[in-house]
Amino acid sequence: MRLRPDRTPAPVRRLSTAAAGADTVYLVHPGALDAEVHRTLAAALPAGSGLTVLDLSALPEYWEAALTGGRAATTVEDLAGRLAAELLGARAEDAPTGGSPTGDARPYTLAGWSFGGVVAQALVEQLPAGQRPRRLVLLDSIAPTDAYKPSDEELDPTLLLGWFALYLGAKRGTPVAPDPERLAGADVDRGLEAVLDAAVAAGALKAGTPVFGLRKLYDTYVDGLLRNNRLTTPYEAVPSSVPLVLVTAEGSLIPDDPTLGWEPLAPRGLTLHRSPGDHYTMLSRPDAAALIAQLVHAA
Amino acid sequence: MLVVTASEAQQWLVEKIAHKLGVEQSEVSPELYFDELDLDSTEALILAGEMENWLGFELGTTTLWYHPTIKDLAAFIAEESKTRAEERHAAAS
């Protein structure tokens, strides 16, 4: 919901500030969960390291599309350009000299979660060569390649309801596991009844929560997914000029697919890792954060 | 479709929010921003869905963003409800 004017989210959110001479990791966040979720990663980084989130959900042209039917009046390239400017500004402020007109030339790592990884990869290619990260760490991001661009129709209710249950569990801090047999082939209303039953049983929602209330949350969640899908469809990614590191979650949105389609975009190398958790809880679980911290911090 | 006044909408919101938070209605100030009421975005959207079911028309999710207090939202709902009733009346006449 809209916050008080003095609490409007900013695109650059410093979750932890680096000590003098220490590295800062930058991470592109696409919303869905609050950017504060990355505090688990901030805590897992070596003492003195910084973590700055570049929050797409602070850009009105992006977040409003999740509330108005899933159509954003912007492009992946434009979003990447906006965040590239924010990244360069943040790095100039973080530079040891206290700010440099040519930017901070020290090596750094950029990461991106989910659709944030797609925008982060586009962002890297918009940066001047001397300002690019040493690597890009993708956290359960699905590549913007043709084979991995589903049509809206391919996002059927059974698939979406399963993802929605994961999302609801992450939002409420407790797993929500609806009966798969009730989800299989169900329409949205019947499927949401199964999700609601599981959420109430898990203590994620109060008993008596009406299904039409949950429908509003579901519709907004799906509009956010459709927005990202529709932004990705016309987007033609260029191969990465930096090495890619992909971390898939054990409970990824596309299970049992270790590359998520990134190979054609990784001429400088693609390293694969597996983290505990699902697409959402990989951000809040300390065991997943410990793995991710090693990957974003490695020299 | 229901036609409601601002005070009816405000009372409905106060009752629902007090129930969700497990507090007395007197503790829910209509002047506070929703985020000050300890109502997270999940609960706010579920509340929006309940509200639409009560009113019988869709408000649009951005309504909560652009009318971020109970008082603001209740005034908007009353205005919207009145406008829709007038449009329906005009269409029927």
Question: How does this model look, in words?
Answer:
The complex is a heterodimer of chains A (299) and B (93). Chain A is of the alpha/beta class and 299 residues long. Chain A has 2 domains: 210 residues, Alpha/Beta hydrolase fold, catalytic domain (Rossmann fold, 3-Layer(aba) Sandwich), CATH 3.40.50.1820; 76 residues, no CATH class. Helices cover 37% and strands 15% of the residues of chain A. Chain A is built from 9 helices and 7 strands; from the N terminus they run E-E-H-E-H-H-E-H-E-H-H-H-H-E-E-H. Chain A has a 7-stranded mixed beta sheet, with helices on both faces. The longest helix of chain A is centred in the C-terminal third of the chain and has 22 residues. The radius of gyration of chain A is 19 Å and the shape is globular. The mean pLDDT of chain A is 91. Chain B is mostly helical. Chain B has a single domain, classed as ACP-like (Non-ribosomal Peptide Synthetase Peptidyl Carrier Protein, Chain A), CATH 1.10.1200.10. The longest helix of chain B is centred in the last third of the chain and has 23 residues. The radius of gyration of chain B is 13 Å and the shape is elongated. The chains are: A alpha/beta (299), B mainly alpha (93). At the A-B interface, helix 5 and helix 8 of A face helix 2 and helix 3 of B.
List keywords for this structure.
heterodimer, A: 299 residues, alpha/beta, Rossmann fold, 2 domains, 7 strands, B: 93 residues, mainly alpha, 0% strand, PP-bd_ACP (chain B)
Q: What is the average of the pLDDT values of chain B?
A: 87
What is the CATH superfamily classification of chain B?
Answer: ACP-like
Estimated radius of gyration of chain B: 13 Å
Q: Quick one: overall form of chain A?
A: globular
InterPro entries (chain B): ACP-like_sf, PKS_PP-bd, PP-bd_ACP
GO molecular function (chain B): phosphopantetheine binding
GO biological process, one term (chain B): antibiotic biosynthetic process
Protein name (chain B): Acyl carrier protein
